[in-house]
Amino acid sequence: MLLSSPLVTTDWLNDNINHKQLIIFDASMAQAGSKAAYKAETIIQGARRFDFSKEVCDLDSPISNTMPSEEKFQSLMREFDINNDSCIIVYDEKGIYSSARAWWMFRAMGFDNVAVLDGGLPDWLAKGYPITESYQKVKNSGDFIACYNPDTFVDQNAVLAQLGNQSYLVLDARGKNRFLGDAEEPRAGMRAGHIPNARSMPYSDIVKNGFMLDKDALQTVFHKRLAANADALIFSCGSGVTACILALGAHIVGYENLAVYDGSWSEWGASSELPIELGEGLDIK
Fold first, then answer.
1. What is the pLDDT of residue 284?
2. What are the extents of the domains in the chain?
3. Helix, strand, coil abundance in the chain, percent, nearest 5
4. Which of 43, 127, 220, 280 has the most neighbouring CB atoms within 10 Å?
């Protein structure tokens, strides 16, 4: 069961929900700054929990939501009974939000047969498709093999090294006011502003009512932001979550050389040693 797109519709998922290779993950997350784990009130039938904030992450890192090691990711996926021939669909409670993070994590670990549920849980509920109150219990272990691609995630040193390289462009998925430095950051101790030479591209520019824009509309939005000489893109946000929405959109359009800044503003904004900009910078209205 091979996927032909990084997005699937709720109709497609409902039609294929009983396929033996299909694995559904709920990748919803708690609100930023919340210490409590996300608690689902309604779950798509057969779904399992993918918690990249409390479990599928580097628990030793002081920064939220950072990537776990290749070994840990592989071990956890095997515990979830994920196999190399599995077909994985990830969704979240908002439509397309945190599900894109789980999608990018799988791709970073060398697994491409994964897609985001366009419209997510809201569209599933609107159509009256089957739901449950508990996650599916796993009885077996899988044979999943992780093969981490280090080019898919970058750290602050990599971003810092590319600040003067015009072939690299940082796109910031946070809201415009946060990018400009006009809004207070939701996390304590964060400076306001953005990475020098970055451009503002709020994730809400490409996701409407929980659905990704179509390919032509995505192309228009990205063309508006990109410099002609930029052949590599780095996506940043508050904590590396909504940056993955931009990665998903760019992938759909066909861009290559894509990377997510894993620490994002949670790391950059907390360090007084890293440069910041206020105001428009290189933003294009």
1. 37
2. 7-132, 153-268
3. 25, 15, 55
4. 43
Domain 7-132 has CATH 3.40.50.300: no
Helix axes 99-108, 243-253, angle to 10 degrees: 70
Calpha distance 112→50 (Å, rounded):
17
pTM over 0.85: yes
List 57, 87, 237, 244, catalytic entry:
237
Quick: pLDDT tens for 49-62. 999 999 999 999 88
Alpha carbons 155 and 19: distance in angstroms, whole number: 38
- Rounded to whole angstroms, the Cα distance separating 244 from 168 reads 17
The residue to which tokens 């030479």 are assigned:
197
- Do domains 7-132 and 153-268 share one topology? The answer is yes
Those residues of the chain that have pLDDT short of 70 are 31-37, 227-229, 281-285
Interhelix angle 215-225/243-253, nearest 10 degrees: 110
The full DSSP string for 205-257 is GTEETTEEPPHHHHHHHHHHH--TT--EEEEE-SSSSTHHHHHHHHHHHT--S
- The reported pLDDT for the residue numbered 49 is 96
- Asked if 244 is an active-site residue, the reply is no
Identify residue 74 by its one-letter amino acid code. Q
Report the alpha-carbon distance of residue 234 to residue 249 in Å, rounded: 13
Q: Quick one: pLDDT at residue 23?
A: 97
Pick the CATH number of 153-268 from 2.60.40.1180, 1.10.110.30, 2.40.50.140, 3.40.250.10: 3.40.250.10
